[in-house]
Structure to design on (510 residues):
């Protein structure tokens, strides 16, 4: 089996064995930074939502963003696929480099960005179409080459949904359970061969069994993809993430308004055993506020 | 703020300290029994160990429940793990007191050597002091006090060596030799109690710093 990974400006197949060789025992922080964020600040109509963010998202790892409501973690993840472009009055300052290239450079096509960087949302949002068409939609629009049936099957296999839906591909996706719909959305993401999967609270609307499936899936998928997840569930971050960033809310330098800030970013094991910052400690142990 | 969780943590720590107080009583009884050759008191020490064991099981079960229900992390997790190990160390100290009591019964009627008994009194006091320092440093999250256990341990180790040397100089009468052989084990038990106190100190240092290290490495002294 081969997967598509980017090497420089061209996309070449790379075997899993090669990736394992490259990344098997390697420390996450020594891997290539898929995203490099420098001094990022995002504001909506002049109100700063998050500021002073500098961090790297490493390849073939799960990176979790945790923090209280209003800390800007969803705002940040939306910078990675330029979703904030769609919000009137939104302004992104600082750098977001994707494989070293400025994601916000004038010559970058946001549609191409969103093909390489997929997003899964809190609430499953399948199209009101058949299961098959949900998956086939992206490849058709993008005119991707190859056998469409095979592509649909592979995406559903990777999302651990194939066995449950293979006999009813022509039925409406809306007939699936919430957990199945969410895996369908992940499969839809995978069908266009992305490099990164962003997940904004992907399991918060799901029951514990469906949640476990999504978490298992993240564990599998990180061998081939880079995953960033926003979660309110700290134990979920502790379970699935290799790296964890904790964000908090502080009164801004301008006084009055509250901004999100990055407090601490480290290996997940470190964040949940010996966090360096008192604010992180207070949050993860439930003593926040 | 997780109020019930904090209350459960506090209660577990309180129970652990109560267990420590029981161990101190057992230690005083065991040392007194061996020095006075008091077999009745030795029996009491042996029976009293059930109280320590009961307390040990309650702390153990409380920790199990807390881990299952509250999923502690960071400093809470370190405290729970430290208490899990401290609990075992205290229970072992209780067992060592039982061993001293049993040796007291075995040596009933054999001729004691008074200077050695003075040595046991000294070791008993040092062991008691070490347990108190260990418990207090845990209570106060005091790494410096925890590390001072290493110096106290050196003193009890020296007392142990003095006793062994004295025993080697003792006479060759059969009864005296038998008493002496059994008393080497008593000395060893008291010295081991000191080692367990040091181990509790190491857990306190781990709790405070987040980094575990042995105060001394027995295999690389």
């Amino acid at each position: 089996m081969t997967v598509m990974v980017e090497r420089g400006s061209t996309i070449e197949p790379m075997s899993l064995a090669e990736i394992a060789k490259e990344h098997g025992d390697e420390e996450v922080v020594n891997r290539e930074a898929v995203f490099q964020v420098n001094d990022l600040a995002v504001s909506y109509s002049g109100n700063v939502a998050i500021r002073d963010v500098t961090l790297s998202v490493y390849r073939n790892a799960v990176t979790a963003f945790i923090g209280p409501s209003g800390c800007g973690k969803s705002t940040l993840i939306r910078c990675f696929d330029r979703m904030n472009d769609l919000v009137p009055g939104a302004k992104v300052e600082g750098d977001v480099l994707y494989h070293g290239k400025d994601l916000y450079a004038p010559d970058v096509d946001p549609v191409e960005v969103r093909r390489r960087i997929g997003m899964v949302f809190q609430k499953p949002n399948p199209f009101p179409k058949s299961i098959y068409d949900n998956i086939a939609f992206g490849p058709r629009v993008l005119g991707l080459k190859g056998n469409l049936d095979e592509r649909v099957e592979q995406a559903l296999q990777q999302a651990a949904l194939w066995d449950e839906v293979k006999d009813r591909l022509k039925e409406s996706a809306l007939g699936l359970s919430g957990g199945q719909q969410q895996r369908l959305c992940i499969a839809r993401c995978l069908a266009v061969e992305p490099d990164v999967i962003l997940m904004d609270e992907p399991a918060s609307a799901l029951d514990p069994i469906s949640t476990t499936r999504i978490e298992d899936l993240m564990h599998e998928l990180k061998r081939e993809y880079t995953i960033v997840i926003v979660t309110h569930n700290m134990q979920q971050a502790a379970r699935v993430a290799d790296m964890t960033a904790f964000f908090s809310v502080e009164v801004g330098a301008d006084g009055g308004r509250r901004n999100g800030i990055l407090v601490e970013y480290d290996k997940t094991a470190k964040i949940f055993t010996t966090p360096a910052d008192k604010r992180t400690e207070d949050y993860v142990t439930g003593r926040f506020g | 703020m997780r109020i019930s969780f904090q209350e459960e943590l506090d209660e577990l720590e309180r129970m652990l300290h109560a267990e420590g107080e029981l161990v101190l009583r057992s230690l005083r009884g065991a040392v007194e029994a061996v020095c006075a050759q008091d077999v009745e008191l030795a029996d009491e020490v042996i029976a009293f160990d059930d109280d320590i064991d009961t307390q040990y099981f309650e702390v153990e079960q409380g920790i199990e429940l807390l881990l299952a229900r509250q999923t502690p992390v960071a400093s809470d997790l370190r405290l729970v793990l430290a208490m899990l190990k401290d609990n075992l160390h205290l229970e072992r100290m209780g067992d060592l007191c039982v061993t001293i009591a049993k040796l007291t019964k075995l040596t009933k009627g054999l001729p004691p050597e008074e200077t050695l008994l003075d040595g046991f009194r000294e070791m008993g006091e040092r062991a008691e002091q070490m347990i108190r320092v260990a418990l207090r440093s845990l209570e106060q999250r005091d790494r410096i006090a925890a590390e001072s256990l290493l110096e106290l341990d050196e003193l009890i180790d020296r007392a142990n060596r003095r006793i062994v040397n004295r025993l080697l100089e003792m006479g060759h009468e059969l009864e005296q030799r038998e008493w002496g052989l059994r008393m080497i084990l008593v000395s060893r038990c008291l010295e081991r109690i000191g080692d367990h106190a040091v181990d509790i100190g190491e857990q306190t240092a781990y709790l405070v710093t987040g980094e575990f290290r042995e105060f001394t490495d027995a295999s690389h002294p």
Observations:
- The two ends of chain B are 45 Å apart (CA to CA).
